[in-house]
Amino acid sequence: MERTYRILIAEDDAIISETLKDYVEEMGHTVIGIVSNYEEALSFCDEQPDFVFLDIRMHGKDEGFKIAKAISENYLIPFLFLTSFSDKKMIQEAAKFKPAAYLIKPFTKHDIYAALEIAIAKVEVKNADKIELKDGQKYYYINPKEVLFIQSEDKYLSFQYTNKRLLIRANLKDINTKLPAYFVQCHRSYIINTQFVSTKTTTDFTIGSHHIPISKSFKEEL
């Protein structure tokens, strides 16, 4: 069965955004929202769409670059740039954010289909070494090399990175067997990436500024 994607459109031109929505939905994907500024875009990014169409220039400002920066720093979401500008300076600036694709307006339905298919294929290759977790209708791709530790919080798993944290509705059992050998469970609520451990005592591990407890039941294994 062909996979469908939840897509966010960030575009300030109503005609273009509705046309894009029609094209994307005809391809079998779902548009979870249409936004036209930074604040609206980030509120939808909290819902973890699978893909984002980003207009670079919105309301006379380079909102797309601002949104792309936030997505790159705080979310694990691939995006594609849309723009009317094809000059060298704009393309070089856009390339800094490493978009999955760069599409020039005006576009056709075929342009959108081709750009999205290529962008998704690139993302899937990029995600090949990552761990896939499903939370309801959402898919998350976790690069284990970047995760400091994983903490179980009620019905959620908290993935702690150097500068961010990601919450996914799952449990330690869902991911424990998928992790590389350098991950070890040291507590019923914690799995740590041993590559980031700076110190260890009889009661805890230190990873950056975090102190991860070691429970009695896991001491023997460790």
Structure description:
Helices cover 31% and strands 31% of the residues. With 222 residues, it is an alpha/beta fold. It folds into 2 domains: 121 residues, Response regulator (Rossmann fold), CATH 3.40.50.2300; 81 residues, OB fold (Dihydrolipoamide Acetyltransferase, E2P), CATH 2.40.50. A 5-stranded parallel β-sheet has the order 2-1-3-4-5, sandwiched between helices. Strands 10-9-8-12-11 form a 5-stranded antiparallel β-sheet. A 3-stranded antiparallel β-sheet has the order 13-14-15, with no helix packed on it. A hairpin with a 2-residue loop joins β14 and β15. The mean pLDDT is 89.
What is the tally of helical segments? 7
**General shape:** elongated
**Major β-sheet strand ordering:** 2-1-3-4-5
Q: In the CATH scheme, what's the topology name of the largest domain?
A: Rossmann fold
Can you write the helix and strand succession as a string?
A: EHEHEHEHEHEEEEEHEEEEEH
User: How much helicity do the residues have?
Assistant: 25-40%
Proportion in β-strands: 25-35%
Compute the number of strand runs: 15
Radius of gyration: 20 Å
Instruction: Let me know the CATH homologous superfamily of the largest domain.
Output: Response regulator
Q: Label the CATH architecture of the largest domain.
A: 3-Layer(aba) Sandwich
* Class based on secondary structure composition and strand pairing: alpha/beta
